[in-house]
Amino acid sequence: MILKIIIIAVVVFAVWKIASLNSVKIQFFTTGMDKGFKMSEIMSLWKLASVSELEEPESLFFSLPLMSQAITKFIQETRENGTDTLESNKRFLSKLYAYRTRISLEHENNKSLDSTKYLDKHQRLRIVLPGSGVFKSEILANAGELVIKTPTRNGIIAVPGQDWVGKTVHVYLWRKGDAAYVFDSVVNNFDVYMGATALRLQHSSKLIRTQKRESIRAECSIDAQLYFLGEGEIDYDAVDANPGYKCLLEDVSEGGALIRVGGKGVKDARVKIQFNIGDSLVVMFGVVVGVEYNKSLNQSRLHFECIHIEEQMKNLVLSFVYKTLPEEKKEALEAISLAEEDAEGRDGGELDSPISSTPDDSSFDEMAAVSNSVESLSDDNSTSNAGDSLSLDEKEDEDLESLKGGFEEHFDDKMNEFRTKMEAFKRS
Q: What is the pLDDT of residues 118-132, one digit of tens each?
């Protein structure tokens, strides 16, 4: 009886082992099909991932830099073993460049990020750990998880890596040529990556995108004077000594205000508001972009958008807003501002030199040179089956053909064998 139980356990373990060994390949091929690639294309990409020894082969479907890095690796290896002039390798290289173009066009046609899987290595990040402040980091690797440098503040690891694990963080970034993004994530683990301490974050498909840093408004109750500007050129240096229409500011930011006034407001009116913060005068010029009229009270709320404010007065408003904000909004404002500085290349806390893991300029020159050597190939060659293009060992080719034949048959055979043993066990 014990022997039979052991036999069953061994068979179950064997089935599980076979499935787990193929899980990475199964996921790779499944993702490839989901992305609309043909089976021959997926097989070519799998070979490329194998040659490049990628930690997470599936990332080839998402990352343009990884595809470029893998192509460079292929060029280097074929040159070293003297197979770079083989027509089969030229055809395969041409096909790889076509794949790279396809990924590039997908990024161009859909610049808005819908997943953190598309973020590039060395992307600068601003991380908010609620209650602990704003930190800076950068992406070290992007595959099954987002691997980032252990966040620092003023160049110091103020919160040890293990203390981040299990915490929800808010991540802010400015993507070059695109916009600012914000997303939440959970820290899965803390370890060492390529000699640097790192955090592993869960991927997110819920990213909030904005073209510019939004103004954060602070609720207030400030008496102000409102002046209609009328048509013609505006004198931004003018300060009115005469009283205007009395009004009340219900919230304010450097970008505008919510103004309560008596009577029915007028949308699109050009106005100026004057008020004091402490003993200092603030003058804002702008437009009424929206009106909420309360007929019973005969009062209006004017949504005022500022188009001009002197820099010194702007800083005064920002200081007021910052002081009145709750702590979590202060952290968000700081993170957004620092991410914006990162994009502009200003000294918002320059990161240390990143770990070199992407091809250098000479590598891309090599890619361009080889690309020129295959330009003369016909379209038929560039789209030919790449199943026999790489000079890999026969075992790998047979393995890939087996995968092409279908994973289900392989798994079903083992399950049928298991069921047969189970039936024999029941009959005994």
A: 888 889 999 999 888
Q: Which residues pair with 127 in a beta bridge?
A: 135, 171
What are the CB-based long-range contacts (under 8 Å, 24+) for 344-347? Answer: none
The pLDDT tens digits of the residues spanning 215-269 come to: 677 889 999 999 999 777 888 888 888 899 999 999 998 889 999 999 999 999 9
Q: How far apart are CA 124 and CA 172, in angstroms?
A: 9
Question: What are the tokens at 7?
Answer: 């036999």
- What distance in Å separates the CA atoms of residue 61 and residue 48, rounded to the nearest whole number? 12
